[in-house]
């Protein structure tokens, strides 16, 4: 069998494998969709965002009145005696007494120094903060799904490379056995070929283990049964059009961490407004309708009842509280200052991370081109070496070296693509721009 026929068999073999699993391929788009629907941390973040949204009401801000109903019923049985001013006395055993009160009361704070309006605005900002946290969680989890997915692609490519070397090593063993049978090779050559084949089979087995574990990890991110079987696409497409300036502009607008710091500053400013509102009076309106009834077995009055409306208002003003108002305002201002510092710090961290990741990205793009050329050269060298080995013009050591060089070149090329994809994912995650 010549080298051309050997490579034809390999191509047919890989084609058949791909065709068999065609209906089981999980695309990256499907993986991200499943993660958005199933991932536990995303579900929790969604619920937290809904909680923040639910809290944005004028009632929670203190703008609406409160209405309460109450009922009180007291009863007693007593032995009673009374001595009156004229000297007469009266007594009664097991005297029954009862009183019943019920009604509704209304309370409404109509002015509190505009604190309620600042509180409502703060609730809205907290909702935005919840949305930002949801976005951050989604970006992180989608980034993890992308990384795990393309790790599987890389490992699948390495499995393919190892399958190829198994076929080559098997062919080498057959050639060595044939040469030995006709007296053109020693038993040592056969043994060396067998040892190398065994080594390749062990490496393939380890790679299958890594591939299976990587599948389990991706299933975990997708929040589904770890035993769910699937395959992934066999190629990695790297976006080589990213521009650092564009990524930095996007990050200023979309990065969740920076967005959260900006929202925190706004929340701190609204907190200062609420603190300053304590300098103003608080005016409450009160109203109610009550019914009261009492019965007594002993006394001048045996039964009384009343019902009616009551209304009024009260106002309070903090005149002096031990300088706590001044202290609270000072603390609130320092919180605003800290939030501004946090924004500047996050900006610096973000720009540093983007610059570093972009340099790694550029390096990885260059490595893709270099490793692609190396892989093509190694393939050509492997083909020539196989032809020479068949006619016995090179040693088994030279053949093995060419074989390993070919496999390693394929693995390095696959790894270069994977590392470049990781750089792309990291950059888009920092820019808040991962497509899903």
TrEMBL record:
It is found in: Cell outer membrane. Keywords: Cell outer membrane, Membrane, Transmembrane, Transmembrane beta strand, Transport. The keyword Transmembrane applies. Pfam families: OEP (PF02321). Coiled coil: none annotated. Its main location: membrane. The keyword Aminoacyl-tRNA synthetase does not apply. It comes from the Bacteria. SUPFAM superfamilies: Outer membrane efflux proteins (OEP) (SSF56954). PANTHER family: OUTER MEMBRANE PROTEIN TOLC (PTHR30026). Belongs to the outer membrane factor (OMF) (TC 1.B.17) family. This is TolC family protein. It comes from Flavobacterium calami.
């Amino acid at each position: 069998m010549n080298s051309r026929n050997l490579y034809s068999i390999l191509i047919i073999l890989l084609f058949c494998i791909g065709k068999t699993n065609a209906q089981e391929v999980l695309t990256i788009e499907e993986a991200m969709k499943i993660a958005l629907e199933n991932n536990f941390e995303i579900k929790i973040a969604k619920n937290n965002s809904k909680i923040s949204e639910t809290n944005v009401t004028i009632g929670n801000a203190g703008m609406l009145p409160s209405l309460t109903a109450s009922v009180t019923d007291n009863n007693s049985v007593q032995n009673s005696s009374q001595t009156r001013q004229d000297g007469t006395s009266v007594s009664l055993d097991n005297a029954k007494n009862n009183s019943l009160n019920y009604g509704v009361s209304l309370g409404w704070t109509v002015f509190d120094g505009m604190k309620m309006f600042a509180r409502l605005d703060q609730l809205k900002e907290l909702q935005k903060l919840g949305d930002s946290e949801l976005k951050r969680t989604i970006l992180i989890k989608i980034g993890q799904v992308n990384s795990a997915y393309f790790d599987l692609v890389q490992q699948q490519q390495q499995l393919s490379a190892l399958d190829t070397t198994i076929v080559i090593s098997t062919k080498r063993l057959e050639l060595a056995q044939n040469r030995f049978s006709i007296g053109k090779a020693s038993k040592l050559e056969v043994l060396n070929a067998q040892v190398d084949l065994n080594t390749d089979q062990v490496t393939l087995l380890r790679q299958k283990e890594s591939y299976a574990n990587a599948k389990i990890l991706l299933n975990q991110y997708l929040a589904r049964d770890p035993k769910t079987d699937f395959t992934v696409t066999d190629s990695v497409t790297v976006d080589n059009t990213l521009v650092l300036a564009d990524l930095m502009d996007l990050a200023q607008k979309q990065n969740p961490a920076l967005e959260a710091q900006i929202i925190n500053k706004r929340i701190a400013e609204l907190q200062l407004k609420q603190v300053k509102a304590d300098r103003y009076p608080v005016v409450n309106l009160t109203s109610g309708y009550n019914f009261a009834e009492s019965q007594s077995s002993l006394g001048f009055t045996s039964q009384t009842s009343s019902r009616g409306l009551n209304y009024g208002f009260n106002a309070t003003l903090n005149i002096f509280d031990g300088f706590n108002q001044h202290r609270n305002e000072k603390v609130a201002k320092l919180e605003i200052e800290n939030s501004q510092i946090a924004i500047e710090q996050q900006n610096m961290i973000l720009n540093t991370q983007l610059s570093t990741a972009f340099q790694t990205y550029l390096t990885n793009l260059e490595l893709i081109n270099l490793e692609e050329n190396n892989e093509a050269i190694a393939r050509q060298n492997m083909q020539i070496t196989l032809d020479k080995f068949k006619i016995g013009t090179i040693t088994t050591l030279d053949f093995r070296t060419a074989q390993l060089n070919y496999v390693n070149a394929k693995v390095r090329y696959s790894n270069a693509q994977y590392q470049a994809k990781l750089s792309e994912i990291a950059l888009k995650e920092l820019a808040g721009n991962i497509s899903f």
